[in-house]
Amino acid sequence: MRDIIPQYDNFDAGHGRDHVQTVISQALELAQYYPEVDPCVLLVAAAYHDLGLAFGREEHHTHSARIVREDARLRQWFTNEEINTIADAAEDHRASSSHEPRTIYGRIVAEADRIIDGETIVRRALQYGMKHEPGLDREGQYRRLMEHMREKYDYGGYLKLWIPESDNAVRLYAFRQTLADETAFRKMFDRIYESLN
Known about the structure:
Layout: H1 17-30, H2 39-48, H3 60-70, H4 80-92, H5 104-113, H6 118-132, H7 138-153, H8 168-180, H9 182-196
Helix pairs in contact: 1-2, 1-5, 2-4, 2-5, 3-4, 4-5, 6-7, 6-9
């Protein structure tokens, strides 16, 4: 792991070392509800889940799976079947995936990757927007962010939750309430925007 975690230092602020450490921690916490889950397999799947960001965001999940399958070091500790399970979990974590995760490992990693905290969600999305669309002024960033928030987090959005024992559903409901209150949401946006400038 000492060679894997530092790779996250090269990614955007929303996908840095603290992100992968949070995903690992949450995944291992959720695993307690599933005694059939091998914590070592889960740990590696969580650690590798975003490594594909080195090749761009759009297909990062498939690159993460490829990185797992090509990492010869993993063959020292895991069988081919376990490596495929790790790769599938890394690939299936993406919120915008068109299919349900194939295994319990994929569902756990996907759920752990759903860091549903309004402040964190808005900060990460705004950091992404400021980096990738720096020409947008404050209002442009706000419109871009609102469109993304509604598309992903609102009722009918593409974000799916997979683990009923997770408290993400409660946090998602609370965030949706904030999103529905345009005044409260705008205050949150303005405060975070100011802190990033």
